[in-house]
Specification:
Largest sheet: 8 strands, mixed
CATH architecture of the largest domain: 3-Layer(aba) Sandwich
Number of helices: 20
Strand content: 5-15%
Number of strands: 8
Radius of gyration: 26 Å
Helix content: 55-70%
CATH superfamily of the largest domain: P-loop containing nucleotide triphosphate hydrolases
CATH class of the largest domain: Alpha Beta
Number of domains: 3
Structural class: alpha/beta
Strand order of the largest sheet: 3-2-4-1-5-6-7-8
Order of helices and strands: HHHHHEHEHEHEHEHEHEEHHHHHHHHH
CATH topology of the largest domain: Rossmann fold
């Protein structure tokens, strides 16, 4: 996870403050020196780190401690607020600027290797989930197989791709806008060519496309793994092209996080989206306040809720709720729930959004393969076994274990979980008539993260 090193060092600095009943000016300045060093080690721009700690010091020394907070908590509160300001506080900046008429044209640019084509498809899929009708446009006519790559990821994302082969990128862009108007696409995502470095040829082509289609947004895709260099790239593109925002990729990797903390302060342009994984669903709207909470180990439950809303099939959820109330749950319902869990992303990522330090959790406890195992077991059942859990017997269990590549004890564990669920739903049905329900102690014992409950 990004920011692990920074989070640890900030926690260590704040821990020293907690042992003091009252903070002196010297205590605050000492802590802020440690914070500044932590920021610099995270590859945050030097001026940004210096200005940040100066602001926090000034506020911490000049603040009256709130009655409900200890002095150290007050400093953490101030750091949280300043981190939020540093990365952006205006939600309006995070939304694409939709014109009053015609499609919203988004010009995606960046250096080669930043993940521009993949993130074009990720953004298309995210926008489609939000109810839009995006169109991807293949304007990288130089990199071998770039057009084919966009077609493949576009198909996986369920977003149409407009291409004209190796034609002129400016002409392709203009034709794509006409196509979007004719076919009702409300957002056009133009995937442009990249270079290994910024040069006049790259910028001239981007400026020509910009002049021809007058984009509503110019989003720069930068690799957060490159740290401070990502900020330098952002500034160079902004100076020459006038970007409106940034898509930061690989924010889930082993990155120090300096780019996320420096981009807006250096360029004045917001980070609009963050790539947090390799799958096409792994793109999030970037919120400065939520990222600040993650850095300070406070979690990010709001993003978790939004991810759940995006991946949850409402029709399936209602159907499952109805079956629960009538005590008719079967293994098909359990399979559906496991599949919804998979869409939420890796367990570690989900737990981290709750503020859990997953480095202290054993790998076996958050092994995503455990969910895969449950799915394999259910898929090895016959239609009758899935719909009528009561028909299970030793012969069936052995066949299911062999078919799913698991052990009979794994099958038994899943069956016990289903039996516990059925007991709970039966009690819920009875309590519905009496108006109250109390879950017996130990009823859900053993139904941990690996089982999805």
């Amino acid at each position: 996870m990004a920011f692990e090193g920074l989070s640890d060092k900030l926690s260590a600095a704040f821990k020293k403050l907690k042992s003091k009943g009252k903070l002196s000016e010297a205590d605050v300045k000492t802590a802020m020196r440690e914070v500044r060093m932590a920021l610099l080690e995270a590859d945050v721009n030097y001026k940004v780190a210096k200005d940040f700690t100066n602001r926090v010091t000034e506020r911490a020394i000049g603040s009256e401690v709130m009655e409900s907070l200890t002095p150290s908590q007050m400093v953490v509160k101030i750091v949280n607020e300043e981190l939020t300001t540093l990365m952006g506080t205006d939600d309006a900046d995070m939304r694409l600027k939709m014109p009053s008429s015609g499609p919203c044209i988004v010009l995606l640019c960046g250096l080669q290797g930043a993940g521009k084509t993949t993130h074009a498809a990720k953004l298309g899929k995210l926008l489609k989930r939000q109810g839009h009708r995006p169109l991807l446009v293949a304007c990288d006519v130089y990199r071998p197989a770039a057009i084919k790559q966009l077609q493949v990821v576009g198909e996986q994302a369920g977003v149409p791709v407009f291409e004209m082969g190796k034609d002129d990128p400016v002409r392709i862009s203009v034709k794509a806008i006409k196509h979007a108007k004719d076919y009702g696409n409300d957002i056009v995502l133009i995937d442009t060519a990249g270079r290994l470095q910024i040069d006049d040829v790259l910028m001239d082509e981007l400026e020509n496309i910009k002049a021809a289609v007058k984009p509503s947004e110019i989003l720069l895709v930068v690799d957060s793994m490159t740290g401070q260099e990502a900020v330098n790239v952002a500034k160079a593109f902004d100076d020459k092209l006038g970007i409106t925002g940034v898509i930061l990729t690989k924010l889930d990797g082993d990155t120090r996080g300096g780019a996320a903390l420096s981009v807006k302060a250096v360029t004045g342009k917001p980070i609009k989206y963050a790539g947090v994984g390799e799958k096409l669903d792994d793109l999030e709207v970037f919120h400065g306040d939520r990222m600040a909470s993650r850095i300070l180990g406070m979690g990010d439950v709001l993003t978790l809720i939004e991810n759940a809303e995006q991946t949850m099939d409402e029709k399936e959820a209602r159907k499952t709720a109805q079956k629960m109330m009538h005590n008719k749950l079967d293994y098909n319902d359990l399979l559906s729930q496991f599949q919804q869990m998979q869409k939420m992303g890796p367990m570690r990522s989900v737990l981290e959004k709750f503020g859990v330090d997953t480095r202290k959790i054993d790998d076996k406890a958050v092994d995503d393969r455990m969910v895969d195992k449950q799915i394999a077991i259910i898929r090895s059942m016959t239609k009758e076994e899935r719909e009528k859990p009561a028909v299970m017997n030793p012969n069936r269990k052995r066949r299911i274990a062999a078919g799913s590549g698991t052990k009979v004890e794994d099958v038994n564990k899943l069956i016990r979980s289903m039996e516990q669920i059925q007991k709970v739903t039966k009690m819920m049905k009875k309590s519905g008539k009496k108006g109250k329900f109390r879950l017996p102690p130990g009823m859900l014992n053993g139904m941990g993260p690996g089982m999805g409950f």
